[in-house]
Amino acid sequence: KTPLDDFVREHLAAVLMKMKPKDGVAADPEQNWCLADDGRQTVLLYSLGGTSIRLLQTLSQGGYTGLWFDPRTGNTRPMESSVLLAAGTTLEKPTPEPWLVLLRGNREKL
Prior knowledge:
Elements: H1 3-12, E1 20-21, E2 32-36, E3 42-47, E4 52-54, E5 63-69, E6 76-78, E7 83-84, E8 90-92, E9 99-105
């Protein structure tokens, strides 16, 4: 069992099977990967390194709430506020180490 198991069970179990890799969402594709459902209401970004994740595509016209997940410890921390995820938006990571961020359209529940 890994720290990721509980995170997936608690936050992604109902939607993970509906999510697919989405190329071109984030800059630096060697460091940043994206999974999203077709409506992009649930988006999971995985960043291997760096201090931020810069979006290359607008994900939706609405706002998103976010939950950062530390794969080393299993700890989570909410993003401080709702964000609009337009092309050019930069998400500042908690630290430069690997992090996942789960983003849900404001009509979805984290």
